[in-house]
Amino acid sequence: MIDALKDDELVNRIGGRFRFTALVQHRMRELMDGARPLIERHGRNHLEVAIAEIVEGRIVPELLNAGDQS
Question: 70 in a domain, yes or no?
Answer without folding.
Answer: no
